[in-house]
Design brief:
With about 290 residues, the protein is an alpha+beta fold. It folds into 2 domains: about 110 residues, Rossmann fold; about 160 residues, Tumour Suppressor Smad4 (Sandwich), CATH 2.60.200.40. The chain has 9 helices and 15 strands. Strands 1, 2, 3, 4, 5, 6, 7, 8, 9, 12, 13, 14 and 15 form a 13-stranded mixed β-sheet that branches. A two-stranded antiparallel sheet has the order 10-11. Strand 3, helix 3 and strand 4 form a beta-alpha-beta unit.
Length: about 290
Amino acid sequence: MKKLLLIYNPVSGMTKTRLSLAKAIEFYDSRDYLVTVCLVNRLEDYAKDIDFKSYDLLVCSGGDGTLNITVSFLIRKNLPVQIAYIPSGSTNDFAYSLGLSGDVDMLLENTVKGAPRWIDIGRFNASRYFLYVAAFGLFTKVSYTTSQKAKNLLGHAAYILEGIKSIGDLKSYHMTAEIEEETIEGDFILGMVTNSLSIGGFKNILPSDTSLDDGLFEVVFVKVPKSLAALNEIGLSLLSDKPEDNQHIFYKKTSKLILRSEEKIAWALDGEFGGEENVVRIENRKKLLSIIC
């Protein structure tokens, strides 16, 4: 029999989207796979006893945060970064960019019959990684402060409700960004370094030429609006697929950048808390991840 390691998050996603372990094991058994289950929060413990290279297939089941933990672990351990993915989170931004179905049966079938696709990965300072977004400012805190119970109960609506509450906390951050040969300085309410077609459940908010394997990130900085009308313009621009057309939005493609601020700023990496930093170096690691799609 072939060997399969299933890295699993038992609390990710609503009941209708969460993968049943019994269903997964039955499916893989019928395809001649011997399944070992590893809970995502126990990866470091399992690493002491498991030879990850001995498995024919690694499958990750959970949300964007679960996928981030899994891929980051493989990179840090210098293990082959090729996995299959069964998205079962509340928003599944990265799954949308990959074109993965929301049907569990199709997703299971895809893990054994799909073809590998190479994806860029972002390195955040020396030892952190992200698959599709590193962000600070407006709404980003919502992604890691919304309770798991609310996510499971309401799905994407939970983020919307928490986001509405955060508008009253509009805060700007003074920052200098070195992007290739250009340096910009200003006060920003939101910053995103992305490699995705969906962010926070909002689809296609970046230009249509966004690619997941071109070695480039899409960088978006939103300047402080001078009025409510300007804030409304910014929102419409971000949802119009042309953020670069708004005077309050700085947009650029790049493979690396350095960000500096006087105060430490909280970052979200793939929707999870990424720490507080006042100097951030981000680098695109081109085609570092092979994911079955």
